[in-house]
Design a protein that fits this description.
This protein has 215 residues and is mainly alpha-helical. Helices cover 47% and strands 9% of the residues. The protein has eight helices and four strands, in the order αββαααββαααα. The longest helix has 37 residues.
Length: 215
């Protein structure tokens, strides 16, 4: 079923407002982002950005930009070491403060993302959503969302995805502003933030649901 915007805000205001606010934020934060880029280059090497394909609106694949937080350390066989071994103290700080996500402002300006919406997850998860959960891709993914201010990685996948669907069904200006305000508070308090997400949540969605299908 085709997604119908809930109201005038979602249909006419949300995207222009997202673009305007993101451009202003990008200009104001550009000195900080430049400093972080230099530090990442010095401490972690090149490339400065972590780029990964993610599904966006209507499951269209786009390239997500973040500051790099891990090294390219490899074992004797030339394989990358586990994430926990490659995550440096500097990278951990970037994740805990959410500074690694600042480059996503570019994704918002480009139209890949919104300020508020369901977080863009891995492309590997696409075959494992239920028909209802697939509707999380009816709208642009967000820098933050309803699930992120209600526990982030510290909740089961079913509940996390249910929050995404709840958001998509009724997108309102006041709700977006509330989520944005709560996000800022959580970043300041460093609440519900895990540098090692694998240690925080129940695992990868595709692995969990593939096991369920076998059982």
């Amino acid at each position: 079923m085709k997604h119908e915007p809930y109201g005038l805000y979602e249909k006419y205001v949300k995207r222009p407002l997202d673009c305007f606010l993101s451009v202003i934020a990008f200009i104001m934060l550009s000195p900080l982002m430049l400093m972080l880029a230099v530090l990442v280059r010095i401490k972690l090497g090149s490339p400065v950005f972590f780029v990964q394909e993610r599904p966006g609106k209507n499951e269209k694949i786009f390239k997500l930009y973040k500051f790099r937080t891990m090294t390219d350390a490899k074992d004797d066989n030339g394989d990358l070491l586990p994430d926990t071994a490659r995550l440096t103290p500097f990278g951990r700080v970037l994740r805990m403060t959410s500074l690694d996500e600042l480059p996503e402002l570019l994704n918002i300006i480009k139209g890949d993302m919104a300020i508020i919406g369901p977080r863009p997850l891995l492309t590997e998860y696409l075959p494992y959503y239920t028909e209802t959960e697939r509707h999380r891709h009816d709208v642009r993914p967000g820098l933050s969302g309803l699930a992120q201010v209600n526990g982030r990685n510290f909740m089961p996948w079913d509940q996390r995805l249910a929050y995404d669907i709840q958001y998509v069904k009724k997108i309102k200006f006041l709700s977006d502003m509330k989520i944005l305000f709560q996000t800022v508070l959580k970043v300041i308090k460093r609440a519900d933030v895990a540098a090692d997400t694998a240690a925080a949540d129940e695992g990868y969605l595709n692995q969990i649901r593939s096991k369920g299908r076998k059982n």
